[in-house]
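Write out a record, focusing on structure:
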Amino acid sequence: MPKQAKQAVGQRLLSRFRDAGATEIAPDILLPAGDLLDLYGEDIRARAYVTQDPIRGEMMLRPDFTVPVVQAHMQNGADPARYCYLGEVFRKQDTGDTRPATPRDHEYLQCGFELFTRDPQADAEVFALFHDALAPLGLQARMGDMGLLLDAVRGLPLTKARSVALLHHIWRPGRFARLLARFSAPSIAREFPDVTTSWAGMRTEDEMIRRIARLQSDVAVPPLAPVWTDRLERLFALRAPAPQALSTLADLARDMPAIAPAVARIRDRLEAIAARGIDLQTVIFDASHGRTTMEYYDGFTFTFQADRVGWPPVASGGRYDALTRVLGRGREIPAVGGIIRPGLVAELEAQA
C-alpha cells in the first residue's frame, strides 16, 4: 500500500476528530525511556526501540501516543479537553499479528483521539465516534472492562500479598492462570538451608531474607476454595453479544458481589451507546478483552477487528484513569481514547 494512500486516510480521520472538537497535538518521536520503563517495567524493551543519548540518557522511539499526550495534558491541560494526532509509532512486535514481519509492522501510522473529562458519557462518546468513522468497513466491534476483572480479583478471599500478585499479572493471562492454580492448592513447605557463603545474584541479603520470610509465612495460608476459581473462570470466559452478556454478568454479580458496581457501570455505558443509535446486538462483550494490551487500561476497552487472519485490530482504545494519576504526580482526571491504523483502513478500502 503506497504511503501516500495511508497518509490520505490518516488526514481524513484526523479531520473527523478535529470536527469532534479535538485539538491536534504532535508529541516528540524520541521519548525519555525512564517514564515508559517506570510504567511498564522491563517488558517494554521487548516491544520498543531503545537507544542511548550521551546527554539525555536512555531514549525510546515512540511506541504509542497515549503516554506523551497524557504527560502534556497533565502539565497544563484544560478540563475537559480533546486531542487528536497522526504519526508513526515504532514496535518490534505486534501482539496477535502472525503475518510475516514487514516494515509496516515495525513502523506504522496511528491516528488517535483522547478525551479528558469527568462526563459519565465519555466512554459512549468515544466508542460512537470510532464506530461511525469505521462503519463502512463492516468491522466486528468488541468491548470489555478491565475494572470488572480487577474488582473480581480484589473480591476474592485472599491475603493482601496474594491479591496484589494476581492483580499484577492480570495482563499476563498465562502467568495469572499459573498463579491462581498455585493459590488454589495447598502450599508446600520449602526448605531454605543456612547460607554461610556470600549472597549471589541481583538481590541484596536483606531482600532475600524478607522474601524467604514471605514464602515461609505463605505456607500457612489456606487454598482458595474451588467455588471462587470456578466463578472467576466463568467470568473470564464470558463472550456474547452485549445484551446477553449483561444478563450473564447480572447473574454472576449475585455470586460475586464485588463486581456489582462494575456491572452497573457497564449497564449505564451500554444504554448510552444504544442511545447514540448503535445496535448492541452487533457488539460483542468479551470479559477478557484488554488483558493482552498495554497495561494502562483500567476500565472500558474496545477494538474494531477486520475478518482477516492474523490482522491486528484496525482500531483499539479504552479508559486509563490511573495513568493520569501516575503521570499527574497525584493529580488525575478521567480519560478515555483510542487509535486507528490508517494503513489497514486504506487496505480494506482498496479491496472493497
In short: The domain at 3-139+306-351 is CATH 3.30.930.10 (BirA Bifunctional Protein; domain 2). The mean pLDDT is 87. The first strand starts at residue 23 and ends at 24.
